Amino acid sequence: GEALEVNQEVNCVTDFIHGCEDQLQKLKKQKEKGLLYGIPISIKDHINCKGHISSGGMVKFLGQVKEEDSVVVQVLKHQGGIPFVKTNIPQTMINYDCSNPIFGQTLNPLNPQKSPGGSSGGEGALIAGGGSILGIGSDVAGSIRLPCSFCGLCGLKPTGNRISKQGVVSPLIGMQSVTGMLGPMARDVDSLALCMKALLCQEMFQLDPTVPPIPFNEQVRLRGAPM
């Protein structure tokens, strides 16, 4: 409900992920409760969710309904999280604003005359507007950090290759010099740490063997060093 209201004001959601209710019922029956049990999580547009498109803000991707969840979405579900919406991005995602010809312009909920930043602008706007408490964005050159800065949030661009990018649409292929990374966005640092801890689990290391199997280090975080 909150997400719908925020979306009406700032146009940040591109799609609602179906099957949320069923997933919650299934989770309730499980003995093992994951680290993200019952938490609704918003997902940036270009991260694949089964049965939905990953547009990247580009018309050419509109017909391609994804047949399976990206690894990151599989792991979030494994940890009890509930991906519930997909959020807006700029066309091609290589932009500091958040607008494309398909879904239009996303506004900043703190000031609708301003941009929420990009490219994870839909995430920034939705979380800042109170429509989500945890989101997954992505960042090459500021795409998590800029919206977090513009919207007064916390975000993390993890070290390159720390989190699986399998099942994520990119308009650029073969860019090796600067690695884009998926990462969490939320209102506080504790939420980012919980999300990283949840993602860096055996499930992810098994689903994507190219990711180094290094679990989350609580000691490093408490020392205040980079995560």
The ordered string of helix (H) and strand (E) elements is HEHEHEEEHEHEEHHH
Nearest-integer average pLDDT = 94
Report the total helices: 8
- Give the end-to-end Cα distance, rounded to a whole number of Å: 33 Å
The CATH C-level name is Alpha Beta
Task: Report the major sheet.
Answer: 6 strands, mixed
Strand order of the largest sheet: 1-3-2-6-8-7
Could you say how many structural domains there are in total?
1
Structural commentary:
With 227 residues, the chain is of the alpha/beta class. It has one domain: Amidase signature (AS) domain (Amidase signature (AS) enzymes), CATH 3.90.1300.10. Helices cover 29% and strands 15% of the residues. The chain has eight helices and eight strands. Strands 1-3-2-6-8-7 form a six-stranded mixed β-sheet. Helix 3 links the parallel strand 2 and strand 3. The protein is globular, with a radius of gyration of 16 Å. It starts with a helix and ends with a helix. It holds the Pfam family Amidase. Belongs to the amidase family. Keywords: Hydrolase.
